[in-house]
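Course assignment 3, question 2. Fill in each field.
Student: A.L.
Task: Predict the tertiary structure for the chain below.
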Amino acid sequence: MLCMFISAATNDESVLFRASEGDSLFLFCKVLISSSVKATWSWRPHSSDQNIVLQPDSAGERLHFRNKDNDFSLTISKLDWGDSGRYECQCFSSSSQYKTFFEVVVVRARADPQQLTEGDDVTLQCEVSHHLPNTRLYWINMETQENFPNPHQLRNVTLGQRNWVCAVFIGSKLKALFPLTLNIYQHLTTTTTTTTTTTTTTTRSTPAPHYENMGPGLPHKDFTLISICAVFFVLLVVIGALCWRKKTKRGCGVGPEVVEKGDGAGLEVGKEVDQCKMERGPGSGTGGEGVGQEL
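Answer field:
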């Protein structure tokens, strides 16, 4: 932030002060007489002893001269730290000569560091481009109205210490004030609300099957598979036996007995006999004669 204070004098006349924050600087120079007057502007920087004549043709875009009705005021736009110096407006006519002086001192009020978080330390620095005799600088807290010498160091800065003013004194007289607002960021306090959700899980406990006579080292899965295969095989055997028995019963019947006569005359149809008994052979019956004996 660039600011300035200005003192002006016309020989033994009053002193003018002006404060700005990088805006245009207006230096008033006007002769209140009706006769024709001419004027020239010169500038001697504080860093040099040489006077520089300021002319409209070579002044650049930041200098604007007014030349109307004996008004020769000068406007400097975008005042810079290097614009500090002694400006002189000299007006003269055929019968008289007038001089007006402006002592321009640029003031910079800043904080180091510029970006702050609440609780940080910061140094307030007020600088002038040129020290006039008996120049004194102070910092004023706008909240408490307390004043502190320049520079001023703040420890554990708080949000209530944002607004400060750099005060420029010449002797015991206050000449200018330059405000400074600190960029203080507040700590972000995050409140975490923890919601505890109780989940009741009902687990059905199924007892593990008890396997007896398990071979050493035989896994449960393999033993279960073997058991299922064995049961399935037994069922197949039983079903096969039942099917065979049923088929056998269907094949048995009662038919006429055919015997061969002993004289070779041929066959004779006799009484009906059980064909199942014939297949079973001799001695298969209980107390009866078999077909094989008759043959």
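Instructor remarks: The CA atoms of residues 48 and 166 lie 27 Å apart. Helices lie at 220-251, 275-280, 291-294.
Grade: pending
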